[in-house]
Amino acid sequence: MLREIYDQPRAALNALANYLPTEGRENTLRDVRLTADDLRAISKVNIVASGASRHAGLVGEFMIERLSSVPVEVDYASQYCYREPLTQPNELTVLLSQSGTTADTIAALREAKARGAKTLAICNVQGAPITRESDGNIYTHAGEEISVAATKSFTSQLLALFVLALHLGSERRSLTAAETREHLHQVMMLPEKIEHTLACNEQCKSIALAFQKFDDFMFLGRDASFPIALEGALKLKETAYIHAEGFPTGEMKHGPSALVDGNLPVVMILTKDDADAASRLRYSKSMSVAKEIAARGTKMIAIGCAGDEEVKRLTPNAITIPAMTPLLSTILEIIPLQLLAYHIAVLRGVDVDRPRNLSKSVTTE
């Protein structure tokens, strides 16, 4: 697991080498196999997945809606087939599966095709069953992932979803050429930013030492960071066998705040993009909640941006990551949460690569 966490800069670099334009190749997402006319005709995108892949899909909802102005709905693969979805022929159903053999997700693909929708698989394994049945594919190029807990395959899915959103936005003209170039410039910096983020490993190990004996955690994130809070909680559940729940930060006063006391550590994502007014507003609202939680004597771990002194004053357990645009920042935010889960699990004597009752590929419903 630790090796694969550290493999994320290389995985991102490898994916970008396959996605971004090179001389003599205009269509970088050549395996998508959907024409410009197909993409312009899409009225809605459905994202269907399970587990960590569904959390990636929830981030993808923000990416696709903001960059391509197409409405998105995210569903559990295990629910999709049995709720009689109202999927239409002019919709695109995106199926996320790291292995490409997940039974629920393949069943959902067949259901979407039966209803006339175009299908697109995002998968890490070329030639996997789901890629053979879908209308198009985006391979994540993460390389083999042996540890059951998804790390580099998760961040690679986020990158694939971002590139898909950018591709849709460009083809549908919801992004100008200048905006597309700026997003490409930002995404090109991602491997280096991931490398810098990994420098927090020793700090994560030290924080894990202080928090290893807690049996319950709450994770909070706002906007596109909420699914990262869900994924952070999942990593702690499956690797350290600790009960953890993720909530949107704005929902704290609608029930979850009743749980907050000195015995329930809270992990908060408090990143921001100073160049984005909406991001600054979200940050101020989240910081208000964070200060209220801290005032109750709650032990807190915060994920903030480098140079943010307010986050450092909030808690001694502040982990900082490089600043990026909000959508790409999600890829960096999960990395310290992966490391925290890993170190807490090791300190508790758990085999992080082989969690009990779990397998890498779920081939039965």
Label this structure with key terms.
365 residues; five-stranded parallel sheet; single chain; 10 strands; alpha/beta; 15 helices; Rossmann fold; 2 domains
Describe this structure in words.
With 365 residues, this protein is of the alpha/beta class. The protein folds into two domains: 2-188, 3-Layer(aba) Sandwich (Rossmann fold), CATH 3.40.50; 196-347, Rossmann fold (3-Layer(aba) Sandwich). The protein contains 15 helices and ten strands. Strands 2-1-3-4-5 form a five-stranded parallel β-sheet, with helices on both faces. It has a five-stranded parallel β-sheet with strand order 7-6-8-9-10, with helices on both faces. Helix 14 links the parallel strand 9 (300-305) and strand 10 (318-321). The chain is globular and about 55 Å long. 52% of the residues are buried. The mean pLDDT is 90.
Lay out the secondary structure.
Layout: H1 2-6, H2 8-19, H3 36-41, E1 44-49, H4 51-68, E2 72-76, H5 77-80, E3 91-97, H6 103-114, E4 118-123, H7 129-133, E5 136-139, H8 152-171, H9 177-188, H10 190-197, H11 201-211, E6 216-221, H12 226-240, E7 243-248, E8 266-270, H13 277-295, E9 300-305, H14 309-314, E10 318-321, H15 326-347
Could you give the count of β-strands? 10
Provide the β-strand percentage band. 15-25%
Strand order of the largest sheet: 2-1-3-4-5
Helix content: 40-55%
- CATH 2nd-level architecture of the largest domain: 3-Layer(aba) Sandwich
What global shape is seen?
globular
